[in-house]
Amino acid sequence: MLTAGSTGSTGLTDGRAAGSTRRARWWTELLLGLGLFGVYLLIKFLPLPANLERAQANGEAILALERFLALDFELPVNLWLADQGWLRVAANYEYAYTYIITTLILLVWVFARRPEHYRWVRNSFLWMNLLALGVFWIFPVAPPRMLPDAGFVDTVRLGRTWGSWGSPMVDNANQLAAMPSLHIGWALWVSVVLARIAGGWLVQVVSAVHVLVTFVVIVATGNHYWLDAVGGAVVVWLGVALTGVGRRQADRLTPGEARLLATANGACGALALLDTSRGSQPGPEQVKALVGARLADRPRLRQRPPRPGRRRPRWLEHPRLDWAWHVPVFDLSRPGGTAALHRLVADLAAEPLPGDRPLWRVAVVTGVADDVAAVVTLVHPALADEAGAVELAFDLLGGTPVPGSRERRPTSAPPPPSGRAFTALCLDPETRPGALSSVLGRTVPVLTGPAGQLRFGELPVTVVVPVPLPADGVSAVALDRGGVLTVGALAADGDIDRFGAKIRAELPGLRLDSRRG
Which of 66, 99, 421, 497 could form a disulfide with 186 if both were Cys (CB 3.0 to 4.6 A apart)? Predict the structure, then answer.
């Protein structure tokens, strides 16, 4: 029976601590927001010469172009709204607030609930605004309400709208920034982001209605020309496109990935045994928190492979993870012990990963033995360069491979043979990973965690075993537990004994204590 070591634990947490450093930090995002506001103030207080005159001339030129196109409908709509009483007040406040509120809600929601998407969402927002601010400085445009003798009514100032230039609170706002319209830009950007990560026709309809209402309001209140809305759409497109340039390059399917997708028929990864003697059994929510914290840095974990036959195949963004499939839970609290775990791991590794979802799974296994639980991390070999089999398990558990001990990843994923054995060899701390590598004939990855103790949340990890068994017999992972170097190995029946004998022959005097399950 394979047993877990008796290492101390302070209890199980929700697992966010191990992965939280991968998330964007709220204070960093706050500093970025303040920096963007600083650029806005710089443009406001350091204008180019004759800024007002140039802005009014540019506004008149835009209005003249619209008249030439016979599409200058802003004035009649503005005069109609000016006489509408409560509707005018509602439009003023919609103009002043809704684009800000919806944008802030979206950013906070993505930050908290969709962290894997947050960086590109944030970056596209920054690009959109920086491009718009550059236009404000180089090409200032006065809104229709500021054109002399044009006849427009400033409904916002007329209603003394609180929170806009109709009130003293923001009387110093840059009012020469009609082109492009960031009211439309922000509202449309929210719609684009929701279309990419949220899905659902109801969400899209509500977002589209908000964009349409915002367009009517910016024109009717005399604050924008309709061409400003076109400019807002352009900066949204450029912001998203600039954010996605590098990502599209990274999303291309390499020849090696294409070959592995076509030939490999299993999964590879690692099995980690956990000591639960001083903590509760792990749950799927803990695993979801740890994996979710890494999705932003490992794009392949949220992408699915392209359908066969595509001329330019790319990894495709998967809108929503099926956590029940990606993080299944298995309870082995019944007769069978570690033999049942062996069969479960073999079955999971041999099962083909479907191509309609991201190619990875992290299974939570409880009831393995007294005070022992397990986590089985499996990925398709095509993800090896992005989230290598053993390295992904290391990263999930919060540890880091020792530099230079990178494992050569398999080119296929054969399932373990029907006869298999797990072993944990507890070696003297002076054992060098290089010596183990020479015994095995390949690099043995070494995992170490904070202060030499690898943990899953707050549960100590006692053994890490590579999965599946390579075609040539034995695979192993060394775990530096701060005082004891543990080697987790997977081999066919009989090969484990030969592996242990080979270590004894190659490394005499190491005081081995082998535990076999």
Answer: 99
Whether 256 is in a domain gets the answer no
- What residues contact residue 293 under an 8 Å CB cut-off, 6+ apart? 16, 18, 19, 20, 22, 23, 115
DSSP 442: S
**Separation of alpha carbons 202 and 378, rounded Å:** 35
| Residues of the domain holding 357 | 263-303+316-516
pLDDT tens-digit map of 353-373: 888 889 888 898 888 888 888
Rounded distance between C-alpha atoms, residue 311 and residue 9, angstroms: 53
Q: Cα 328 from chain centroid?
A: 21
- For residue 516, the model assigns a pLDDT of 42
**pLDDT tens digits, residue range 103-154?**
999 999 888 877 767 888 999 999 999 999 999 999 999 999 999 888 899 8
- At 206, list the tokens: 């509500």
Paired tokens of 62:
């835009």
| CATH number of the domain to which 455 belongs | 3.30.559
C-beta separation of 294 from 22 below 8 A: yes
Res 507 pLDDT > 70: no
Contacts of 128 (CB under 8 A, 6+ apart): 185, 189, 235, 236, 238, 239, 240
